[in-house]
Design a protein that fits this description.
Layout: H1 2-9, E1 12-14, H2 16-23, H3 27-37, E2 51-53, H4 54-73, H5 79-124, E3 125-132, E4 135-143, E5 150-151
Antiparallel strand pairs: 1-2, 3-4, 4-5
Length: about 160
């Protein structure tokens, strides 16, 4: 009697239709169980059909109650708050990018103005390095347009 039970448990069920009949479900439902819930079916190499053992199917059915309990106990994270936060971060990113572009433009304008002013200043004055009481410093020296001689701007004419 024990041998008959072992033989019956080890029997393979072949094909979706027979597996569906064993479980009392439709073929499409059983196929969905395989993809979504991990129904234990096997595909022998070189064959288009599927097979399953009664033992594996019975164990899978028994584990179904455990799967349902675990699925209910796991907290479902609603994606809406995460999506809303993500969208706000993207909006902030765009705002900061526009602000950085504006600042870049302002810095470029300031650099160009500085270059223009320095160029005008160098055309009118010489920058010379002078030493006074042991301290070396840069001094601005004006060029007299009539005599073409350098003189310090703070010196009396």
């Amino acid at each position: 009697m024990r041998n008959a039970r072992i033989q019956r448990d080890a029997e393979f069920i072949s094909g979706w239709k027979n597996i569906a009949n064993y479980l009392g479900k439709a073929v499409r439902t059983v196929q969905r169980y395989e993809t979504e819930l991990g129904l234990p079916v096997h595909r022998p190499p070189g064959k288009a059909s599927v097979i399953a053992t009664r033992t594996e199917l019975d164990a899978w059915i028994a584990a179904g109650a455990i799967r349902e309990t675990l699925a209910r106990s796991q907290a479902v994270v609603h994606p809406l708050p995460v999506l809303t936060e993500f969208k706000s971060h993207i909006a902030e990113l765009h705002r900061l990018r526009q602000q950085a572009q504006g600042l870049r433009t302002a810095v470029n304008g300031s650099v160009n103005l500085l270059r223009t002013n320095l160029q005008a200043l160098t055309e009118q004055h010489y920058f010379v390095q002078s030493s006074w009481e042991g301290n070396t410093a840069a001094a601005v020296v004006s060029v007299d347009s009539k005599t073409k001689k350098a003189r310090r701007p703070d010196a009396l004419p």
